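User: Can you recover a sequence for this backbone? Please restate the input before giving your answer.

Assistant: Of course. Working from this structure:
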């Protein structure tokens, strides 16, 4: 028994030192070399500070809407809804989001609504929407703001982030950055 206890204690102490002290220090140190010292991408607009890497709530018709959040955009409680696709409450919630979107975007068919506009992400804090999710909102925003649809489509194209290395992930748009650029359009 002594033959097994001493190596187990040594391994436990080594694991604690490596995983609770060394690894966090290495990650923190790497963050110090990034822009903004590892504190995320900060955007200041009209005296307010926003984190561009955390989803923001945009529900006014004059803005591109964000992806819904299961945690009401609260970064302290990042989580999904943990409800499966057959859960009745979840299905009612998604249907309510679809109905709301259709009311605010007349002329759009239910089949044209991208899934990321009616379902929350796994973290509940996704700051991005798909390019299609932005394009399906163009008519509403153009009408309210009196901006040509072509100008809005150019803005979407300018704010589209390409996949990592051109291979990994879909094209996406940061909603906060898109809406700030929208406010800055003349």
């Amino acid at each position: 028994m002594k033959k097994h206890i001493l190596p187990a204690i040594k391994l436990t102490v080594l694991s604690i030192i490596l995983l609770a002290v060394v690894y966090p220090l290495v990650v923190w140190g790497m963050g110090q070399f990034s822009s903004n010292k590892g504190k995320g991408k900060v955007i200041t607009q009209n005296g307010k500070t926003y984190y561009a890497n955390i989803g923001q709530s945009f529900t006014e018709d004059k803005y591109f809407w964000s992806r819904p959040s299961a945690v009401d955009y609260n970064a302290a409680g990042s989580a999904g809804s943990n409800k499966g696709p057959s859960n009745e409450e979840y299905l009612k919630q998604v249907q309510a989001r679809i109905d709301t979107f259709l009311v605010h975007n007349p002329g759009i068919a239910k089949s044209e609504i991208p899934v990321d506009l009616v379902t929350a992400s796994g973290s509940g804090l996704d700051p991005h929407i798909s390019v299609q999710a932005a394009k399906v909102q163009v008519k509403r925003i153009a009408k309210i703001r009196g901006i040509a649809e072509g100008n809005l489509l150019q803005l979407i194209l300018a704010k589209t982030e390409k996949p990592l290395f051109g291979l990994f992930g879909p094209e996406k748009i940061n909603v906060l950055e898109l809406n700030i650029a929208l406010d800055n359009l003349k």
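That completes the design. The longest helix spans residues 2-32.
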